[in-house]
Write a structure and sequence with these properties.
The chain crosses the membrane at residues 20-38, 50-68, 95-118, 125-143, 155-177, 184-201, 216-234. Keywords: Membrane, Transmembrane, Transmembrane helix. By secondary structure, the chain is mostly helical. The chain has helices spanning 2-10, 15-43, 47-84, 95-118, 120-147, 152-177, 182-208, 215-234. The protein has one domain. The chain has 8 helices and no strands.
């Protein structure tokens, strides 16, 4: 994520390249879900636990979206009021965006814990997939901060501070889920399944489609999926 921010302040990627990265990251995460997490969940035949975990995952992600959208609206209202009153612009931090990203990264860390609870192979593949997602997230965050008038050094520092939430989430996930077995593990894995599907369909691909779709951009999704499908088979 820090590398993405540094790249953005040095030479911001064009919209097509950023869209390709988002497509690729979505394909990678979807591949990890389909090839690694989903078979493990289906194998244990625990429909009630799966329904509970999946429902909690969807509810959590929808609640997160509602919360962050409200923060972003409050931030926009505050900025418009500051401009209207002629107050000096001190480049206020976009707290709505930063809180949203922080919570998203925290959940990413928890998902790493869930992945390693399912097995070392699943956790490793998920770590690689989330690394690609965080690269694109670091790019986007730094560009947003630079557009808001923040210096290059401050933009990278803010992204670096926000990225620490990944360590917090991973620590919580590893500690809480270390001894998870049986029904509890099924609930946790189903929660992660829902959260990852939400991340792919409602976040990564939604942002990726802000750029006009082309065959090459669409292809990058399937390249990411195939790459980690093959990696999962030979790892």
């Amino acid at each position: 994520m820090i590398a993405g921010a540094a790249l953005a302040v040095w030479r911001a990627p064009g919209p097509k390249l950023r869209s390709a990265i988002l497509h690729f990251a979505a394909g990678v995460i979807f591949s990890v879900v389909a090839v690694e997490l989903l078979p493990d969940i289906v194998q244990h035949h625990a429909p009630y636990e799966v329904a509970i975990g999946f429902g909690l995952g969807v509810a959590t992600m929808l609640g997160l979206r509602y919360f962050t959208q409200r923060l972003e609206k409050q931030q926009e209202t505050t900025s418009e009021t500051s401009v209207g009153t002629g107050s000096p612009s001190a480049s206020p931090l976009p707290w709505g965006l930063l809180v949203a990203i922080g919570i998203d990264i925290l959940i990413d860390g928890l998902l790493l814990g869930i992945g390693f609870a399912a097995g070392a192979k699943e956790g490793t593949l998920l770590a690689i997939a989330l690394t690609i997602e965080l690269l694109s997230l670091g790019l986007a965050t730094a560009v947003e901060l630079r557009d808001g008038g923040h210096s290059k050094g401050r933009a990278v520092a803010i992204v670096a501070g926000t990225s620490l939430m990944l360590l917090v989430g991973a620590g919580i996930g590893n500690t809480v889920l270390r001894g998870a077995t049986g029904n509890l593990l099924e609930i946790v894995l189903s929660f992660g399944l829902a959260a990852l599907l939400f991340l792919v369909t409602e976040e990564l691909l939604t942002e990726a489609h802000e750029e006009t779709e082309t065959p090459l951009l669409t292809l990058s999704f399937f390249v990411g999926f195939l790459l980690f499908l093959l990696l999962g088979m030979v790892a």
